[in-house]
Amino acid sequence: MTRYVIVGAGAIGATLGGRLAQADRDVVLVARGEHAAAMAERGLTLRDPAATVTVHPPVATAPEDVDLTVDDVVVLTVKTHQVLAAVTAWADRPVRDGGAVVGTAGELLPFVTAQNGVSSEELCLRYVDRVFAACLWMPVVLLEPGEVWVRSSPLSGVYQVGRVPAARTDPRDAAFLDRLVADCAAAAVEIQRPAEVLAWKYRKLLANLGNGVQALLGDGDPEVKRFVGLARDEALAVLAAADIEPVDPDEQRAGVGGKTDPKPIPGQPAGMGGSSWQSLARGTGSIETDYLNGEIVRLAHVHGVPAPVNTVLARLCRQAAARRDAPGSVTADQLDAALAHPRTA
Question: What is the pLDDT of residue 139?
Fold first, then answer.
């Protein structure tokens, strides 16, 4: 029986692992701090528009707590800026078959990279042979330890999953993906298998450029849409200069449209923002925007084209996270002023 080792069981990882546990699949949640302690002590509570459930999967806090076997799948659900530390901690862990060590996790096990952005796969390929990218459409919020708000129902999420690079093939891959599709279907997560998953991740990257804007201005600020439009228009020009073609919007709508639209949950808090908003709300001191808006900045530097909007957004988000500012610490006027003078913002 396949076991899913969910490394970084925050909002995304706890939802996926919790749904798999709810469907009686074998899973272990790897987390840390108060969130890990809460899940170990009283279980993981998932609240969605239709119901509230509590599950009790095993919880680990370090790689040394998990004895890996050839039946395991490692699912990295940390944020992109945490991937390098996670993959280096897990790639060299011994893997057993019938009690005997037969190799390392990086040599033998499939690793699923379930992050926003497009950098995780290249980071992991330094250490892992079988890397499978996952493009995530899963509106979930983690604000309190041991409790996740899953904002879509009946599906908790839709993932596009595929081998990276796509040209790599392995006799084990088809069977692994078949199991993943079946197990996740039982767990209210739809897995799609496109020919080129990174084209999907670039489309999602465009959607995620608004995460930092929402974090800076606050959830529900009416000016968010205007600034997001500026960031995306600039990003499309940069991607064109880099000769990168994301999945067509019509293909996105056909694959995902309406399936994961957020719905109200009884008793939900007033603020329910995205991943970057949640980083500021929890005061983590770090934020993933260097791999979202910052990815556009990287490509702009490589190809010699301007990207002042995304440069400023990435910088302001880094600074807000370092200061542990709450969401909404920047006004629209302040952001306009920063964009008008990007070199001094």
Answer: 96
